[in-house]
Amino acid sequence: MADEDDFSPRDAGAIKFGWWKTNEHFSAPGSKPEAVSRSRDLVEDDLRERTDEYGGSVGWPVIAVDFGRGWQYAYRAQTTRLVDVREESPGQPSKYQGVRDEKTSNRGGLREMPPRDELDITPRDLDVSGLFPSSVDESESDLAAAISVGDEIERRYAERIVNQRLHQPEIRRLTLAHYGTACTYCGQDVPEIVEAAHLIADSEGGAASVENMRPMCPNHHRAYDAGLLVWDGDRFGPADGAPPVGPAPGTA
Ligand SMILES: [Zn+2]
User: Fold this and answer.
1) Higher-confidence residue: 180 or 106?
2) C-beta separation of 191 from 250 below 8 A
């Protein structure tokens, strides 16, 4: 039987998990799972929610794995845990699998077959995305991609804004308290508009520390960020070949 060992990671995206009410349900040739998902956890949660009348009395629900070659008996769900039957009871999977695959008629240990109408079910898909790609038309698929990209941008934007809100007022206050409110380059001293400029940008790993900050007027802050001014470790000066950016030092 197929298992992870002879399964190429290249095909990993094709793995599906499905659950059956009991071993007997699984063993019925052609029977379909109650629910299907790429996520074993989702399948297990769903199984636990819906099999009160089965677990333990009629039989333990089972989870099978499809590596792209059909369902393979794998886990048995017991009250408090999921048992990997392939490890704990190596003989069981082949027994049930053999009956299911019609390779053996030996039903030793198996109970009555479940009613036919119980077997004739349509699997519920717990995780639709990508599981049955052919059933998703192009526009839906594009929309899904757009939504997830948007979510990511929104999340990162939110994180960035939160970081700014958390750090910026505090670091500005500390920077001005330490260095004063005059622009480090031109000396313009207008506390209402002075900014705390990063010497090394936070996008380049610069710390939000007083050591890495200097007070700057908005114009020179912007000029520095644009590369028109350079920091030599001690003071700001015009970059080579850069046009002068006012106000000029010492004139503010
Ligand atoms: Zn300035």
Assistant:
1) 180
2) no
**Which residues are CB-neighbours of 105 under 8 A, at least 6 positions away?**
99
**216 CA → ligand 1 middle, Å:** 5
Based on the fold, state whether residues 30 and 120 are members of the same structural domain.
yes
Structural domain ending residue among the three candidates 125, 157, 192 = 125
Rounded distance from Cα 246 to ligand 1 centre (Å): 7
* Domain residue limits at 210: 168-238
Task: Specify if 4 maps to a domain.
Answer: no
pTM of the model: 0.45
Alpha carbon of 208 to ligand 1 centroid (Å) = 21
Number of domains within the chain: 2
How many angstroms separate the alpha carbon of residue 236 from the centre of ligand 1? 10
Domain match, 116 and 200 both: no
More confident residue, 226 or 87: 226
Mean predicted confidence (pLDDT) in 175-197: 92
Does the pLDDT at position 34 exceed 50? yes
Per the domain annotation, does 60 fall within a domain? yes
Mean of pLDDT over the chain: 75
Distance 183 CA to ligand 1 centre (A): 5
Classify the phi-psi angles of 242: left when phi > 0, otherwise alpha if psi is within -120 to 50, otherwise beta.
beta
**73 alpha carbon to ligand 1 midpoint, in Å?**
72
Structure token digits, residue 33? 């799972």
The answer to whether residue 142 is domain-embedded is no
pLDDT of residue 243: 92
Other Cβ atoms closer than 10 A to 104: 13
Query: Could you tell me if 86 and 185 lie in one domain?
Result: no
Question: Ligand 1 centre and the CA of 225: distance in Å?
Answer: 13
User: How many Å apart are CA 67 and CA 82, to the nearest integer?
Assistant: 19
Q: What share of the chain in percent tops pLDDT 90?
A: 19
**Centre of ligand 1 from the C-alpha of residue 187, in Å:** 6
